[in-house]
Design brief:
About 5% of the residues lie in helices and about 40% in strands. It is mostly beta strands. About 25% of the residues are buried.
């Protein structure tokens, strides 16, 4: 047998076959998944329920299930998505009927909808006894932009259906987040090096709310990717109370939320500032926690402020997202 000729024939055959296989793998997927099985709902409470369904069949595999709600006044509305064949609802209204169905996706095509399922959450009793006061929220884990909180749970003559977490600034209390009956929560999109005071309130199925917990406090740690330069200008001519601190962000990646912190001498107060600010102890903290902008490398933030009193911001104490400026 001519081995050289045989090797050549095999090589040519493989070369001819590989492009065909690659082309088959690159063929656009035009076949949608089949419908998922009829959903089944179990574990229904005043506000929660678990829905499961048989998986859909697809020639290349299902990557996601869309959960849709059928409403009487707004039609079919997207509700959530999962890669599993089970989903836990939370935050539903007591004594309310809900209709849901499931749609499978293979990443390119959506299949037909499953049959729908209708269920009703438990009806809340008519009563006026609020839950007991929750324990003080404490930090169990923290990063520059997230924190995990836990507290001693409340008790109630019927049930606790959820906890609401409020941020307290002075005498103002603003809802920060809410969850389910678990006495834990995860805070996201925090601003590094900003002070937070938080209280927790429990709610029962009738809508009765507990007394707020004692306040818990946290300050996210510095962002290790932050760096900055600082310069000071002021007081402005003709406006002796006006000052400007210019902070240039020298980090490598854009950031969504930021804080800039300075020490203020005792007896100095702020009467106006260019952006959102807080006077915490002896520190003046400017911050941005919106969604319309990012702080990009090389960008300079001009922090203008009107001060009264004997002092001015000390540039030597400037920190951006918790990291000292140069």
């Amino acid at each position: 047998m001519n081995l050289t000729r045989l090797a050549l024939v095999v090589t040519v055959a493989l070369a001819a076959a590989l492009p065909a296989r690659a082309a088959a793998a690159d063929t656009p997927d035009t076949v949608p998944p089949g419908p998922p099985g009829r959903p089944v709902v179990t574990g229904i409470t005043y506000t929660d329920a678990t829905m499961t369904w048989a998986p859909a069949v697809d020639d290349r595999g299902v990557v996601q299930y869309g959960i849709w709600q059928r409403t009487p006044d707004r039609g079919d509305m997207f509700y959530n998505a999962t890669s599993a064949t089970t989903f836990r609802f939370s935050g539903l209204a007591p004594g309310t009927a809900y209709t849901f169905f499931v749609v499978a996706s293979d990443g390119r095509n959506n299949g037909p909808a499953s049959p729908s399922v209708t269920f009703q959450t438990r009806t809340a009793p008519v009563e006026s006894q609020p839950p007991s006061r929750p324990g003080t929220p404490t930090v169990t884990a923290i990063s520059p932009t997230t924190a995990e909180l836990a507290w001693t749970p409340s008790t109630d003559n019927v049930a606790v259906i959820r906890y609401l977490v409020y941020r307290v600034v002075g005498t103002t209390r603003t809802l920060f987040t809410y969850g389910d009956a678990s006495a834990t929560t995860r805070l996201q999109f925090l601003v590094p090096d900003r002070d937070y005071t938080l209280v927790v309130v429990a709610e029962d199925p009738a809508g009765n709310r507990s007394e707020a917990s004692a306040p818990g406090r946290l300050r996210p740690p510095p962002d290790p990717g932050a760096s900055c330069r600082v310069s000071f200008a002021g007081p402005s001519p003709g406006a002796p109370g006006m000052h400007r601190v210019a902070v240039t962000y020298t980090g490598a990646a854009a950031v969504m939320h930021w804080s800039a912190r300075f020490a203020l001498p005792a007896g100095t107060t702020v009467s106006w500032a260019w952006t959102a600010w807080e006077h915490t102890g002896g520190d003046l903290v400017f911050y941005y926690e919106g969604w319309a902008d990012t702080l990009v490398p090389g960008e300079t933030i001009n922090l203008d402020m009107a001060l009264t009193g004997p002092g001015r911001p000390d540039p030597a104490t400037a920190r951006l997202n918790g990291v000292p400026c140069t």
